[in-house]
Amino acid sequence: MRCALLAMTAITGQSFRLAPAAPWRLKSTISELYVAPRRLLSCTSVRQGSVDKSKYILREDGANFPKGYKAAGVHCGIKKAGALDLALVTSTTSSPASAAACFTKNVFQAAPVQISRAVLLNKAGRARSLIVNSGCANAVTGKQGLEDAWTMSRKTDELLGGGSQETLVMSTGVIGQNLKMDKILASLPQLPGQLSDNYKGWSSASQAFMTTDTFPKLRTRSIQLGGQEVRFVGMDKGAGMIHPRMGPPGPPHATLLGLIATDAAVEPAALQTALTYAIDRSFNSISVDGDMSTNDTVVAFANGASGAKSIASESSSDFELFRNELTDFAVELAGLVVRDGEGATKFVKITVKVRVL
């Protein structure tokens, strides 16, 4: 019997920890998410496999996707039995979107992490697309792995007809094996024709993210920002090998992958600041098994297709609203990973209220 713990809200900004002898740990900061290791608290016994997780799947009638994006997922042959294993998300705006990312701090960073970081640094926080494969992590694969990740990025750029170095790369799956590039390159040309801005496209892309996940993790929401409706879509994956410590791109520092795309207009530097803030208060507080992956990555795109006023100043009220909404959305997405933690059968929310005298 295993449990997962989620603390959603704390009035105090103070941190605290139980005695070292305790079999679990809890840390509290405002609006942060915390998950204990697998053996947590005494819970009513539930048979393994008895938890119905289908209720966590986003339904078509509840989806409200942002403008200016298309997505698709196909089967390329890395996984068996026709399971979707190659996903593409792209902004259809005339110029690349603002892009930000937080990457694993594992010293053994996988090839896709290194390539995506390089793209963001080379293009000053702009990107158009994200290509993702599941079933093979392309980690600990040396020079060949780097070449394969660059090939995925460049071939996607060519297929979409945009500029160079506009595609970020994610991979998840088995570590220490090279990608089946013949299968990926044979299937990449299918993706542009499958792209759509509706539920089918986003749902198939979220399924192609999955490895040991038991359900696709996809969510949408909308907010009012500067008098305009702004929409978000988010998808992530993760069930095992979850103990992320992600930070912004820069010097080096089953996997957690995530994408949040919005039609808000946010300048790259402000988007990176907001994403880093959000990740520190959501995904970075998850631990399923204490194992930090080589591939952990969360990417954010902001393409401005909503028509809302662009956010550049990090001291503006619009930035604060955007950052807080992004954080709340990241907490929701991180909660899906917690619910799907390998072996977890319980999801516990704890609200901590502390009055300072």
Automatic annotation (TrEMBL):
It catalyses: L-glutamate + acetyl-CoA = N-acetyl-L-glutamate + CoA + H(+); N(2)-acetyl-L-ornithine + L-glutamate = N-acetyl-L-glutamate + L-ornithine. Catalyzes two activities which are involved in the cyclic version of arginine biosynthesis: the synthesis of acetylglutamate from glutamate and acetyl-CoA, and of ornithine by transacetylation between acetylornithine and glutamate. GO terms for biological process: L-arginine biosynthetic process; ornithine biosynthetic process. Its EC number is 2.3.1.35, 2.3.1.1. It is an enzyme of class 2 (transferase). Keywords: Acyltransferase, Amino-acid biosynthesis, Arginine biosynthesis, Autocatalytic cleavage, Chloroplast, Multifunctional enzyme, Plastid, Transferase. The record marks 254-255 as: Cleavage. Substrate binds at residues 211, 237, 255, 342. One of its GO terms (molecular function) is L-glutamate N-acetyltransferase activity, acting on acetyl-L-ornithine as donor. It is found in: Plastid, Chloroplast. GO terms for cellular component: chloroplast; mitochondrial matrix. It comes from Corymbia citriodora subsp. variegata. InterPro entries: Arg_biosynth_ArgJ (IPR002813), ArgJ-like_dom_sf (IPR016117). Transmembrane segments: none annotated. Belongs to the ArgJ family. Pfam families: ArgJ. The lineage of its organism: Eukaryota, Viridiplantae, Streptophyta, Embryophyta, Tracheophyta. This is Arginine biosynthesis bifunctional protein ArgJ, chloroplastic. CDD domains: OAT. Heterodimer of an alpha and a beta chain. The active site is at residue 255. The record marks 172-173 as: Involved in the stabilization of negative charge on the oxyanion by the formation of the oxyanion hole. The keyword Plastid applies. Pathway: Amino-acid biosynthesis; L-arginine biosynthesis; N(2)-acetyl-L-ornithine from L-glutamate: step 1/4; Amino-acid biosynthesis; L-arginine biosynthesis; L-ornithine and N-acetyl-L-glutamate from L-glutamate and N(2)-acetyl-L-ornithine (cyclic): step 1/1.
